[in-house]
Design brief:
alpha/beta, 5-stranded mixed β-sheet, 8 helices, 50% helix
């Protein structure tokens, strides 16, 4: 059950859908009472016209109740990504990795801008996050300068640097010099959040975990 919840396939929890369910029941009761009054006063054609707003409200509530499950499954819109602060972005990327089959370790601190993940081959993936206007990852002030040097069971660790903005040519030169380092900029991050597998975004450099 924990694995299903972590991968977003368990479905929404009761506490997440309970407010929408209570509101739906209240609106349904009020709508039925109002419909009965309208039909009694003006006849059934007027009652049929009164059902249109209720149908619209019901559709909106249903769509809203699906959003938590979609986010837990690792699917975000571009607007939702833009509204995330850095800790929430770390959580979103963790969900996207789990969606693609990676086993993600939680960061040691809630505000840590770092993730570690492994695939079923034992390959380590280190994920660092570069906030806006931060120095390069190898410069002194960068929060993601710490990098694990241990090797996994299947080769050296891979590294992603995630940034919602645009990387400069200097960033690209740094990543090429480091080796096994791949930059996920804003456009790639949005594609990843929409469902594109990570292995496709980095042109096969990050192997896709085997599916059971």
């Amino acid at each position: 059950m924990r694995e299903l919840r972590a991968s977003g396939r368990y479905g929404p929890r009761l506490r997440e859908v309970l407010p929408a369910l209570v509101a739906l029941l209240a609106l349904s009761g009020a709508g039925l009472a109002g419909l009965a009054l309208v039909c009694r006063a003006f006849g059934w054609p007027a009652g049929a016209l009164a059902l249109a707003p209720l149908a619209v409200v019901g559709a909106l509530l249903r769509r809203r109740s699906r959003r938590p499950a979609r986010l837990r499954a690792g699917h975000y819109t571009a607007q939702e990504l833009a509204e995330l602060d850095m800790p929430a972005l770390v959580l979103a990327v963790a969900r996207m990795l789990r969606r693609d089959g990676w086993r993600v370790s939680s960061p040691a601190r809630h505000d840590a801008l770092h993730l570690a993940a492994r695939d079923d081959r034992g390959r380590l993936l280190d994920v660092a996050f570069r906030p806006v206007a931060e120095p390069l990852p190898d410069e002194e002030a960068c929060s993601c300068r710490a990098r694990p040097r241990s090797r996994g069971r299947n080769g050296p660790p891979l590294r992603l640097v995630v940034h919602r903005g645009t990387f400069t040519h200097r960033d690209e030169v740094w990543a090429a010099r480091e080796g096994h380092t791949y930059l996920i900029d804003g456009p790639r991050l949005r594609l990843w959040a929409c469902g594109t597998p990570l292995a496709q975004l980095v042109a096969g450099a990050v192997p896709a975990p085997r599916r059971a």
